[in-house]
């Protein structure tokens, strides 16, 4: 069972601190989602973890750094954004060339080709592959060594909805077998379905780390929908709790008070409740809230002096 431990990762390009003091663990048996706005440092972090970029800190896989692993593909499977395959080398041969130095038999090549649904085109040249097919080939390469840990940068890129569902089931299955899966994605709805844990960064720094459910619950963007014929009795009590009330049709959307607090307040006020529905924030809302101050690529504003900021 492999545990990934990243300790104080950091990277500076010129005078830009792209990754700053990031520490986290990825536990076996779980999918850990890696989220951050464009340019926040996700790919750089993954490259640092695999020793592909020089920087600060260290990452260990069950206590061993990637560079010190014997036959690393058997321990860590990685898919990074750049497609490393040769456009004219047939897909199956590409995988065989990766497999041989790691002592991986051809039989395993055929197995992973089938797992990623490329059997029919395995003798074709990746240069002619669609984005999604190329991505499947990259995933096949990551799986070749049957590794305990997977580090995947945007693996759903280019996959159609069916492909995304396939990938979700595959990664959940692999995590269910006790592997550690660390995966970045911009597809937040997908991440909500896929991930157990999250690492959320902005401008290279840690913004949140923990179970997906906690991240959403702490967002403060959840609300409670209330319907009552006795609004005038209930509203002042809710306001005195510090809640924000917004009318929505014949309902009231209450933010800043729990359903329990609202129920108690209604009883104390003698107000009848015809509906009390809790609505959790979505991962997307929680993410936008968490990264709101640190997003690097907001639309630029024109200042009074005409300059861009
Ligand atoms: N080789 C490089 N040289 C200089 N700057 C770089 C280099 N690679 C990345 N950067 C900068 O480091 C920052 C982090 O980039 P990175 O690609 O890690 O972000 P990301 O979160 O993966 O982005 P995206 O979601 O858009 O893929 C960005 O400001 C980027 O411009």
TrEMBL record:
One of its GO terms (molecular function) is ATP hydrolysis activity. Coiled coil: none annotated. The keyword ATP-binding applies. The keyword Membrane does not apply. Pfam families: ABC_tran (PF00005). Belongs to the ABC transporter superfamily. This is ATP-binding cassette domain-containing protein.
